Amino acid sequence: MTIEELYGIGEEFRNKLGTFRAEIQVCGGGGCLAAGADDLLKNFDSACRQHGLENKVRVVATGCMGLCGAGPLVRVTLNDVMYTRVTPDDVAGIVEDYSRKLKRYKERLLPGDFAFYGKQSPVVLEHMGHIDPWSIEDYIAHSGYEALAKSVTYHNPESVILEIRNSGLRGRGGGGYPTGLKWDIVRRGPAGNKYIVCNADEGDPGSFMDRAMLQGNPHSILEGMAIAGYAVGAQQGYIYVRGEYTRAIECMRHAIEEAERMRLLGNRIFESGFNFHVDLRVGAGAFVCGEETALLRSIEGLRGQPRPRPPFPSQSGLWGKPTVVNNVETIVNVAPIVLRGARWFSGVGTKGSTGTKVIALTGRVNNTGLVEVPMGTTLRTIVEDIGGGIVNDGICKAVQSGGPSGGCIPAKHLDVSYDFDSLSSVGSMMGSGGLVVMDDTTCMVDMACYFMDFCRSESCGKCIPCRVGTVQMHRLLDKIRRGSARESDIETLEELCVMIKDTSLCGLGQSSPNPVISILHYFRKEVEQHVFEHSCPAGVCSFEDADPASIAPPTSSEDISHA
Amino acid sequence: MHEIKTLSIDNVMVSAAEGTTVLDAAREHGIDIPTLCHLDGLEDVGACRLCLVEAEGQNKLLPACVTRVEEGMSVKTHSPRLLKYRRMILELLFSERNHVCSVCGADGHCELQTLARRAGMDHVRFDYLHPALTLDATHERFVLDHNRCILCTRCIRICDDVEGAHTLDTAGRACDTSLVTDMADTWSDARSCTSCGKCLLVCPTGALFEKGSLPSEHHGKEEYLKYIVNAQRKMPWKR
Amino acid sequence: MNADHNSEQRSRHKQLDRALTRHQGAPDALVEVLHTAQQQFGYLSKETLSYIAAQMQLPPSHVYGVASYYPFFRLTPPPEREVTICAGTACYVNGSSRLEKEIRAHCCATKDPNDTPAADIGTARCLGACGNGPIVRVNNDVLLRANVDDVNAALAQQEEDAS
After folding, report:
1. Chains within contact range of chain A (3+ C-beta pairs < 8 Å)
2. Which of A97, A366, A438, C54 sees the fewest Cβ atoms within 10 Å?
3. How many independent structural domains does chain C possess?
4. Angle between helices A37-50 and A88-99 (to 10 degrees)
5. Subunits touching B (CB < 8 Å, at least 3 pairs)?
6. Domains in chain A, start-ordered, CATH in brackets?
7. Å from B238 to nearest chain A CA?
8. Can you give the pLDDT at residue A158?
9. Which helix (H) or strand (E) is C29 found in, with range?
10. What is the pLDDT at residue A559?
11. Pick from C16, C45, C69: which residue ends a domain?
């Protein structure tokens, strides 16, 4: 394969697409599949055949289109319209409408100016939801593998790293470490085997962007990994995928085979001296394997437990060799940076956090799904405009960002901008980009208890502060919930928070108290109400261990303190 | 030749060869840093977190057992913060499983007990979790009492690294982590066990002991480990 | 019957052998091999684990330690019917814990306490369809914005399909 041949394949596929008058795209994202997208696809296929349209309309399952809460989603490219919550009953209407050139089928039509899409600026998700993830040609037709071709053909590894460094790209998996710097350390490491590892062990409850990318645009991950391999001098890459993601695994396996068949992976890529192979490794449900040292151990076939750092994986990773561990979204950002340049990328977002961020917006908002906004967008824009506000016209109480390692940000801070530094200044973190919106039906004590329950059961069990400390924190919170806690329990809880943060072995243990710390800080009054008055403003806790006479009746939602 | 590094530990200037751990450098100079999972001669895992120390200019606490000395480094090993954390870690351990000393054969010769006493841990402020675990006495000579195990993994490492049998390992995770012998069957079914008894020698508590004898009777024999490790790795007599 | 069982066992071991050969006994392939074995047998029995340990020349305790570490691996046979409630944050704020209590109380319960319950009820970390919570999986069917009636209906439907 040469760069000219690559352009040829893209051209040919675009011509083929040009022979269709329209495309009916059915979203194949996780939410839409669960809502019946597979059946819908078959229905559209047969409906088109019935109308003799099989050569005029291309029916295709794409990756995630974003608006997951309103699935299954269908897009018709002719007028670029989208339909939400499509049922098999709508299929005939949509197809007939098209074939007879009637006025548009008005049922379930999404308004063209819908704010959910209007406020986004997709880079990572640009082609997802538009292309067929099972077709490498479709990816190539959308400038796929062009960045790899250009890197290998026209640039030396140093200049690729320089471009990534200048772009200001920081790791999207949680840590926010400068990607170019990490690559540079690996490049400068001792000669010999080096590895690229793509961390796709998405574990934060409430995040699903990795899954969407794996099964929505798998080649963008392979291309990014290959560019990383070229830049640091690695010949082998591993994608570590969460075992539960069956479909994503199938899709990724298929993509690797296709790329190998086209010799976009393998030996002598683009007729150069660069060889790069990618293997898929399937995780087995341990949250802690999202931590890089644990992930590497798991790839090595061991119990996925973290080890002390230093040495960092970039110095001593897989089998002791220098290893780049990058999150899926970080890797997908690479090709656009190479194609459009570092200056373009650093012009998006804020000074300390360049580019965009993919966010999994969930919880008590009207529009839930996958969104991508420039760094620096305010939480308010995300919740109120993109999210369409709170369900049932409710009031936002807090947003939780960063999963079990992040914190709860009260509504009074909704004008904080979504970027690495601003989020940590309000006691939270970006994490992998989960954003769960809460209204007054959410009890913060219950929420804290939920997160500690998660952390204690996902602890790897190696170090004592995390293994036992999280269990004790959960017990204390549960006591508060059940009405048997005393004032001193809040103090003990606080002491444990600080101690676990300072003494745990790995990043997951160290960050496990974060949700509780933020809740004790911002919602202290609500916690104290539970302890002293046995009252739960959200009406969630039942105080089953308290003296029944001491339990206060549920207060109205206005009384919730947002101190 | 290793370069010599000079550093300060608790305001005392000390020197140590490059590659030495902070723990070893401190101990060489008579500064005691408490440890549980560390044992001279075994690979370190940095799991018990008791040996955490403060280093000037570093936000994070460093595990002394795996941190190498650096030129000009200034280390504090007994700050009020560290003492408080150590005590809490010990309290957590006592709350986790049944460590009632009065009915334990290791009473008086238990590292956990000694550390707790030294840390001034006179009570445990956490709820006792104390799940009812099993006691495996099926081996003809040895007993494994899961209730006393603190999961320091010293026995696993010596069984793997020194004896080469790898009969022991950890199974499960989180609070349900436990020691297993072979396929988690009883110890008597573990065909890989050579009955060498090294695991008993390195157990810091009363979790592993020999029938008909008290853990106090193997006390002090861990010194022998250094000799075995040295013999096995370097075979000094073969030069 | 027994002969059938044995020959079935052998043919499955053969498939497992293929996976073992593919990895040429590389010790780092253990997690991959365990995945293959679970696909073949539905779960990882001690017999299977011992076989893998012997073939890969790994200590039995190491193989057991790895298999028991990962929640994805089952060490006991899977239940015939399974109801899994998503316990992800997004589902949680949409009431999954309340739903779990309701399901435990009103679904799958049998009138006679001696009867085996109609399904095993459990929770999963996150089923990855967070926009539509609470999510419940009834065997292989995923229910969005689920309630107790949906779960009962799905169980009944599956029962009907099976018979």
Report:
1. B, C
2. C54
3. 2
4. 40
5. A, C
6. 16-114 (3.40.30.10), 143-346 (3.40.50.11540), 356-439 (3.10.20.600), 444-559 (1.20.1440.230)
7. 30
8. 97
9. none
10. 45
11. C69
- Domain end, chosen from C23, C44, C69, is at C69
Distance in angstroms (rounded) separating the CA atoms of residues B76 and B82: 9
The pair of three-digit structure tokens given for residue A527, joined into one six-digit string: 């916690």
| Distance separating alpha carbons of residues A39 and A182, to the nearest angstrom | 45
DSSP H helical ranges for A3-78: 3-18, 30-34, 37-50
Class for domain B4-77, per CATH? alpha beta
* CA distance linking residue B185 with residue A423, whole number of Å: 49
Residue at C65 is within a domain: yes
Beta carbons of A219 and A335 less than 8 angstroms apart: no
d(CA A262, CA A256) in angstroms, rounded, equals: 10
Segment among A235-239, A271-275, C150-154 with least mean pLDDT: C150-154
Residues B180-209 pLDDT 10s: 999 999 999 999 999 999 999 899 999 999
Cβ of residue B153 closer than 8 Å to a chain C Cβ: no
Contact B95 A472 (CB under 8 A): yes
In angstroms, the CA B154 to CA B36 distance is 9
One DSSP character per residue, C53-84 reads HHHHT--HHHHHHHHHH-TTS-SSPPPSSEEE
Tokens representing residue A336 in the block:
């656009």
For residue B172, the chain C residues in CB contact (below 8 A) are 68-69
Which residue range forms the structural domain that includes residue C113?
A: 82-158
Name the residue with higher pLDDT: A496 or A560.
Answer: A496
C-alpha dihedral over A354, A359, A364, A365, to 10 degrees?
70
Angle between helices A3-18 and A146-154 (to 10 degrees): 160
**Count of CA atoms in the C-beta half-sphere (13 A) of A291:** 27
Q: Write out residues 321-380 of A within 8 Å (CB-CB) of C.
A: 360, 362-364, 368-369
Supply A107's token pair: 């049922």
DSSP A494-561: HHHHHHHHHH-SSHHHHHTTHHHHHHHHHSHHHHHIIIII---TTS----TTS-GGGPPPPPPGGG--
* ipTM of the complex model: 0.95
Question: Is some CB atom of chain C closer than 8 A to the CB atom of B168?
Answer: yes
Dist CA B186 CA A450 (whole Å): 36
pLDDT band with cut points at 50, 70 and 90 for residue A535: very high
Burial label for A104, CB within 10 Å (0-12, 13-18, 19+), is middle
Nearest CA in chain A to B130: A468
Q: Which residues contact A55 (CB under 8 A, 6 or more apart)?
A: A19, A20
d(CA A81, CA A63): 17
Please identify which residue in the block is written with the tokens 């435990």. C104
The CA angle A46-A50-A55, to the nearest 5 degrees, is 80
Q: Residue C150: inside a domain, yes or no? A: yes
Give helix B80-96 / helix A464-482 axis angle, nearest 10°: 70
Instruction: Tell me whether residues B176 and A456 touch, CB distance under 8 A.
Output: no
Residues C109 and C135 in one domain: yes
Residues of C in CB contact (< 8 Å) with A are: 26-32, 34-35, 65-66, 69-73, 87-94, 97, 124-133, 135, 142, 144
Q: Which residue has the tokens 């700050």?
A: B79
In a domain, residue C74? The reply is: no
Tokens of C144: 């969005």
pLDDT tens readout for residues A457-494? 999 999 999 999 999 999 999 999 999 999 999 999 99
Q: Do A503 and B93 touch (CB under 8 A)?
A: no
Closest chain C C-alpha to A55 CA, distance in angstroms: 34
Confidence of residue B238 (pLDDT cuts 50, 70, 90): confident
Residue C129 lies in a domain: yes
